[in-house]
Design goal:
This is Putative restriction endonuclease domain-containing protein. By secondary structure, the protein is an alpha+beta fold. Helix content is 27%, strand content 31%. The chain has a single domain, classed as tt1808, chain A, CATH 3.90.1570.10.
Length: 157
């Protein structure tokens, strides 16, 4: 299955799940909770208050060699937007990709997503746990402070 097939399939439009594709084109579905939606909104507000240029998106699809991954929240610079517009899925990761952890996520799955996003061009990847703790990652590993201008140190949301 290709990402365009997922987007055009009417039976998949109203599912209450986050949908991704694995490397073999199989659908992966994760149920979304209200907590997840609230945390997404808090992240969007945080980014909107601190990053004045660029755009913020939720449920952003990114094509990788391991399938189409969907970041919960992303920030894209004006340069990224000029290059990629609203291409779906993006062929590279936006500068900031954020994953909200849920009980169904394994540590290995999150490590793989962090590596994928960074390998596909993200400057930074954040994870947000149940307690609202933000962990920041760059190519060198976990970071104490964000590399994005105006963000600095982030601990909890």
């Amino acid at each position: 299955m290709q990402w365009s097939d997922v987007l055009n399939d009417p039976s998949l439009r109203d599912l209450p799940y986050k949908i991704e594709l694995d490397a073999q084109g199989r659908l992966l579905m994760s149920p979304a909770s209200n907590r997840h939606g609230i945390q997404q909104a808090k992240l969007v507000r945080l980014l909107a208050n601190r990053l004045t240029d660029g755009e913020i998106a939720t449920e952003c699809s990114i094509g990788t060699h391991a399938g189409v991954k969907v970041a919960d929240v992303v920030w894209m610079s004006p340069a990224f937007l000029r290059q990629h517009g609203d291409t779906t899925p993006y062929p590279q990761a936006p500068e900031l990709c954020i994953e909200i952890l849920s009980p169904s996520n394994t540590a290995a799955e999150m490590q793989d997503k962090i590596r994928l996003y960074l390998g596909y061009g993200a400057q930074e990847v954040w994870t947000l746990n149940d307690a609202g703790r933000i962990s920041l990652f760059g190519p060198e590993g976990e970071r104490a402070c964000s590399c994005l201008p105006g963000m600095g140190a982030l601990e909890t949301l």
